[in-house]
What we know:
The protein is an all-alpha fold. It has one domain. Helix content is 87%, strand content 0%. It has helices at residues 2-21, 27-54. The longest helix has 28 residues, at 27-54. The radius of gyration is 15 Å and the shape is elongated. The two termini are 25 Å apart.
Amino acid sequence: MYRSALERFFVVMGLLAFGVLRMDLVPFAVLLGFMSGQVGLILAYLIFGMREKAE
């Protein structure tokens, strides 16, 4: 479990750095997109994950 979380962390950090440094994207927009994606994953788990456990 921890290996996959660590791999995901490094991949995301690498992609964020690539987007900001090489593609000249706006850092705030890249971080905002990343944060909204993470919030979406957490909400999906809370909504659908807990619903399945209750059944």
